[in-house]
Amino acid sequence: MSRTPLIVGNWKMNKTIKETKDFCLRLKNELTAQKNGPVEVAVAPPFTALAAAAEAFLGSTIAVAAQDVFWAESGAFTGEISPPLLADAGCRYAVIGHSERRQYFGENDESVNKKAAALMKAGLIPILCLGESLKERQGGLAFSVVERQTREGLKDLGVKNPADLIIAYEPVWAIGTGQTATPQQAQEIQAFLRKLLRELFSPAMAQGVRILYGGSVKPDNSAELMAMEDVDGALVGGASLDVQFFVEIVQGARTKKK
Ligand code: PGA
C-alpha cells in the first residue's frame, strides 16, 4: 500500500511575514535538490503570513496549512477566520484540535467536528490532531482517549476520498518536551486508529488516510519513526522553525519503504 509521506511544519506563534518569505524561498530551493522517494511537504505559519508563504511556494508543490479555523462561512464573528478565507490565502490544509488549542482555548471534540465539516465543505483538508495526556497514558487510557477523539471529531463526516483527511497522533506528553514517543508507541496507537477508520468509514479509507506522528520529531528520529508501517509522516513543531532541521526531517521521510 502506498501512502505518500507528508511532513507538516507547525510554526505555532512564530515568524514575521519577512521571516516567512525567507524561510519558504530557502525551503523551496533545498527541497528541489533532494533525491529519493516522494514526500509531500507543508508549512503552517501564523494567519498573518499565510499568503506570503503561498506566494513564496508558487511554482512548487509545497503546500500551506493554517493552524486553526472557525466553522462559519462568514459573518459577525470578530477575530475568527473562515475556511473560504483560508482558501483565499492559498491554504490547502488546516490543523484542527491541536492540544494547545484544546488546553488553552477551549477546543473540544464537538468544535473540532464542526471545523472538520466546514473545511471539507470549502475543499480544504483537515489535519485532525489528537492524543492522550501523560496522566491518561499512565492511567491506561491512551487507546480510549484517542478513540473518543477520533469518533467524535469525525462524527457524521461521510468522507469517501482518503486524500480528504489527515490525522495527526500527537501524545501531549511528547509535544515540545523532547520526549519523543518510541516508534513502537507511535505504531501501536496509529495501527489502532487505522482499524478504527475501517469501522467508521471503509477499508479503502483505512488504507489510504495518512496518519502523521507529532511530538518532538527531530532530524535524528525522523527516519526511525517513518519506518513504522502506520506512520505516514510527521507534524513537526519546534524543529520546523529551522530550515536545515526541517529539510533533514523531510529527508528522513524519503527513506520510508513502500
Ligand atoms: P514539537 O511540537 O515538535 O515541538 O513537539 C509538535 C506539535 O505541537 O505539533
Write structural notes for this entry.
- The protein has 258 residues and is an alpha/beta fold.
- It has a single domain, classed as TIM Barrel, CATH 3.20.20.
- 42% of the residues lie in helices and 14% in strands.
- It is built from eleven helices and eight strands.
- The protein has helices at residues 17-32, 50-56, 83-88, 99-104, 109-121, 134-138, 142-153, 183-200, 203-208, 219-226, 243-253, and strands at residues 6-10, 40-44, 63-66, 93-96, 125-130, 166-169, 210-214, 233-236.
- It has an eight-stranded parallel beta barrel, surrounded by six helices.
- Strand 3, helix 3 (83-88) and strand 4 (93-96) form a beta-alpha-beta unit.
- Helix 1 (17-32) packs parallel to helix 2 and helix 7 crosses helix 8.
- The longest helix is centred in the C-terminal third of the chain and has 18 residues, at 183-200.
- The protein is globular, with a radius of gyration of 17 Å.
- The N and C termini lie close together (7 Å).
- Bound molecules: 2-phosphoglycolic acid.
- 2-phosphoglycolic acid binds at residues 10, 170, 175-176, 214-217, 235-239.
In sequence order, what are the helices and strands, one letter per element?
EHEHEHEHHEHHEHHEHEH
Record field, number of beta strands: 8
CATH superfamily, called what? Aldolase class I
CATH architecture: Alpha-Beta Barrel
Number of helices: 11
CA-to-CA gap between the ends? 7 Å
Bound molecule kinds, no repeats: 2-phosphoglycolic acid
Task: State the CATH topology.
Answer: TIM Barrel
Q: Low-confidence spans: pLDDT under 50, at least 5 residues?
A: none
Structural class assignment: alpha/beta
Shape: globular
User: Mean pLDDT score, rounded?
Assistant: 96
Radius of gyration (Å): 17 Å
- Helical proportion, percent range: 40-55%
Question: How would you sum up the major sheet?
Answer: 8 strands, parallel, barrel
Strand order of the largest sheet: 1-2-3-4-5-6-7-8
What is the domain total for the residues?
A: 1
- By CATH reckoning, the class would read Alpha Beta
State which percent range the strand residues make up.
Answer: 5-15%
